[in-house]
């Protein structure tokens, strides 16, 4: 009986230690997201990270191996909604391929734009400030994140766009994708202004749906015009 109680006690102690380590790791990631967004990678020290997370300095090395590895894990954590969005966008692309035709492709484009807007507007999307900072600085350490999270999304949008404009040159496809993403980001960043200027509830699901449909239709019309221009040349 005594031996069994000792075993149970050891298990409880072991579970508590594991939970404590997981909590410390999670706090470091949260601290990294906040500090890297505010002060940048170079402006944030390991000591800053440890202090914000309430752990000792050695914890960074223990849990992640280095500040650089913690940075990567922080980006992966705050971009998790992007990976989930990518899977839903792939579902819309697959549906368009089954449906065929311009109508199915435009519907897929509308759905993909809506997914992007909803993801950006979600409270779960903690990545906005950090990702914007890293994109503007363009440091090499950000390139693996671009390939892991953003390139697959771009590939899906490319396929949808080519369903609408099969002869569109690759650079025009890229510029179209860039324009879509830029409009989405501006739409979300300027929501307070739109509420004042247009008198709309710019935070409502209905507004996101309306914007998605409008943007998709304009892009589809523009692509049709480019296709006609290409055919006439």
Short description:
83% of the residues lie in helices and 0% in strands. With 233 residues, it is mainly α. The radius of gyration is 23 Å and the shape is elongated.
| CATH topology call of the largest domain | Tetracycline Repressor, domain 2
Q: If you compute it from the alpha carbons, what radius of gyration comes out, rounded to the nearest whole angstrom?
A: 23 Å
Structural category is: mainly alpha
> What is the general shape?
elongated
Arithmetic mean pLDDT = 85
Write out the CATH superfamily name of the largest domain.
Tetracycline Repressor, domain 2
Order of helices and strands: HHHHHHHHHHH
- Uncertain runs with pLDDT below 50, 5 residues or more? none
Beginning-to-end CA distance, first to last residue: 90 Å
How many strands, what sense, and barrel or not for the largest sheet? none
Helix share, percent: over 70%
Beta fraction of the residues?
under 5%
Number of DSSP E strands: 0
Total domains: 2
The CATH architecture designation of the largest domain is Orthogonal Bundle
